[in-house]
Fold this sequence. Notes:
The complex is a heterodimer of chains A (349) and B (170). By secondary structure, chain A is an alpha+beta fold. Chain A has helices spanning 44-59, 77-85, 91-94, 132-147, 181-185, 189-198, 230-259, 261-277, 283-298, 307-316, 319-326, 332-347, and strands at 22-31, 67-71, 101-105, 111-115, 121-128, 154-155, 159-160, 172-179, 201-204, 217-222. An eight-stranded antiparallel β-sheet of chain A has the order 2-3-4-5-1-8-10-9, with helices on one face. In chain A, strands 6-7 form a two-stranded antiparallel sheet. In chain A, α2 (77-85) crosses α11 (319-326), α7 (230-259) packs across α8 (261-277) and α8 (261-277) crosses α12. Chain A is globular and about 65 Å long. The N and C termini of chain A lie close together (8 Å). Chains A and B meet through α1, α4, β6 and β7 of A and α5, α6 and α7 of B.
Amino acid sequence: MTTSTPTIGAEWLSNGPDSDVVISSRVRLARNFAGFNFVARSPRAERLQILELAQQRIMGSGIAPSIMWINLTELPPLERSVLVERHLISKQHAKGDEPRAVAISSPDERVAIMVNEEDHLRLQCIRSGLALSEAFAQINDADDRIEANIDYAYSPRFGYLTACPTNVGTGIRVSVMLHLPGLKLTGEIEKVRRAAKGMSLAVRGFYGEGSEAVGDLYQLSNQTTLGKTERSILQEFEGSIIPKVIEYERLARRSLIDRRKALFEDQVFRALGTLRHARLLKADEATMLLGLVRLGVTTGTITGVELRTVNHLLLITQPAHLQKVSRKDLDQAARRVERARVVRQYLGT
Amino acid sequence: MRNGQKIEKHLCEQCAKDEGIQVQQQHAPINELITKFVMTHGEGVVTAVKSPSCSCCGLTFAEFRQRGLLGCSECYKVFEPQLSPLLERAHEGGMHHCGKTPKRAGLSLDRQQRLMILRKQLSDAIAAEQYEKAANLRDELAGVETSIRPIQPASSTEGAPRREMPGERA
């Protein structure tokens, strides 16, 4: 059995706590500097000023032993897409020619700060598995360090002021990426969706707003930011909502194995077989099949394939990563061939 | 549904558009809220449209309704009457911030506005090549910035006093 060592794996795809169900935990803070217009209303000269100010403050803040500063306007489109696929910048931040940047803690990539996205700063910390408190502690510390030398736009009534009023207050967005194939197979996923909606949580796919839950990967995040403390939002997620979802997902997996063993095994092994023998793979198809193999691996049905390898493949089969790994510019048809080749290389045939 | 069979399709944004399916736009929640608000508060909207634009960045409430984004900190003060009901709905009744507050003394909105005006005058002066005026403005700006230096040493990240916020619970 081949389980090659990942070469350009993201740290958040390693095996953190509860990683059978939780892929990653992310906490993001929206901040703006006092005395400047918000980004969308800033002329180019002001955006450059903000960029310079942010660079000074972030690079001198000691938020991580090593920080990479990337001016996105100087980065080729493929590299920008790689950052999007690694969840280090948003799709919106990858577009356009206005002055903007991202600062990334290196090499762990846990902390990423987008500069001149919708707000002057969008600080995020991403951790593997269920580790929201750790992610919050790290990003809160980074926020304190940056704020020690600059004033943020803030009002006692509205809290941290943001360009979009849906983020005002704490400016916090707590997101957990979940793998819920059990609930999907038992048909209970809609209940989770409805329950989440009832609690004013957003349910999205692997790549955020507007994306489908391909591979049974779902992102659950809070939508209200005003009138609740960061701690209470985190507590709601980590202490109550997410553990319940994890429990339901594990129950669903257990019941599938106990009651519909043949069907369950057929699904996961068929997916593994396809991945091991396919000569053409579309991105969504690969994600969907890898999701099923992940289910097989986490339940112990499939042995000899490491969870880390499956997680890694989920990332490197994405279009930009595939081209980066292959060091080639590939059109869509060539990518399907290459994707199938890379998957076979990792999963062995 | 086709021939009594439910057909499930997973499409990317572009493919969905190509098939004529409406893709959710960014800031849909706030835009939706604004639209709902407009429909249920007809009179309020007339007032909103006529409301003065932001004295700092020039944004009108109508522009905010279109894009869902405010222009600057001052907008929160200028549009407070119109924003309050929107915020209450968007944040499930949350009307006042509670949670983290900046460790530094922070700036009042008036001072934030003063900084913004000075920065705008400075960039206008530079654009018009009025260097003497620009130098004076730069000094003035530095004065305002210096007067709001940290209340704690920059190196300290612990133990800074925190202001009690309205609605903040222990």
